[in-house]
Amino acid sequence: MSLTMALLGLLAAEPASGYQLAREFERDLGRYAWHAGHSGIYPELIRMTERGLVEVTGEGARNSRTYAVTALGRAELQAWLLAPPTGGKVRNEHVLRVFLLDALEPADGLRMLRRIAEDATCRIEELRRIRERHDRDVPEGRDALGQLAAEFGLRQFEALHSWTLWAAERLMRRQEQGGGPVSE
Amino acid sequence: MSLTMALLGLLAAEPASGYQLAREFERDLGRYAWHAGHSGIYPELIRMTERGLVEVTGEGARNSRTYAVTALGRAELQAWLLAPPTGGKVRNEHVLRVFLLDALEPADGLRMLRRIAEDATCRIEELRRIRERHDRDVPEGRDALGQLAAEFGLRQFEALHSWTLWAAERLMRRQEQGGGPVSE
DNA sequence: CACTACATGTAAACTGTTACATGATTCA
DNA sequence: TGAATCATGTAACAGTTTACATGTAGTG
User: Whole domain around residue B129: which residue ranges?
Assistant: First the structure.
């Protein structure tokens, strides 16, 4: 269901081939929202074509097919977006790691936090550069989705960074006070 | 794999029954990091017992079994936490919806953003209350994980809220300027 | 011509969800 | 004793991933 909508959303911004869509997932969408590989995308596009949600609008070199959303597809996407938020399932391995921090020795936990903080800093800088580019030439089509993603990611990584600082401080407070922290 | 680690992490904080673990997933972990239902948890606990990662340390009323991590389980968890961050898969239906915003008519998009912002505000207030409680009595065991989650969630919802404000402004800027936005 | 990137697919294995199914204990 | 909650499980189904498989076009 969600994969269907993700594809519909990408194609609503701009028609594309399965290959291009797969690359798109590796960029913004796959990073923050929904991950998918080409082997899931191609069969899904065929199913969607059968259901009339998308259609092949052209064939290019190397047997590539360009897909575009149909009116029906657009209607289904909009209906889904406006529908009451069903208890969406969350799966995020990064966040999971971060939550299990207390299972490590404090020294290891600190190392892990520092690594996460560094990584977050890199991404924040990268996203700030992307933002500047967006400020100059106002994005259209799929780049507009990229802009939404960049602004979202920027704030999220800032939040993550702020959290690592808090968590590191908490760890050090604990280390000073109570002696044996984790191990049995 | 991730479910295994999530369970190991919860049990590392405090031994528990499958039922208690399932309830735990409905709270912090399932909200932000990893969702799982009881029908996935019970079979996984049995497999983990067979692999020697956990063990049954007691049986209580109503045929309940209490599981605890073994030394091996703790070692595997720590190894996984310290391992290089494999390109973790992300699946978040909420974020997906938010990314596909541009597929809606501007008026609908604004309504959606407002709904998300309101929801975020509620959760932020809730998490602030939880934080105050944590400030009074320093959490131990599984409550410590709850504290990590609360501080993380707080920052994340603040980021989401900030993003909705930005996105709403962007939508209104677009509405003023270029006329026809989405529909073909 | 070799290598890389483009481009699409399938089958088996794995993971997770939904719906079904059962029984124990507490409380009103 | 009826209802709610605690407590555990299974089987069929749906969705994803991994590995395999194939062929095209451009570039050095």
Answer: 93-176
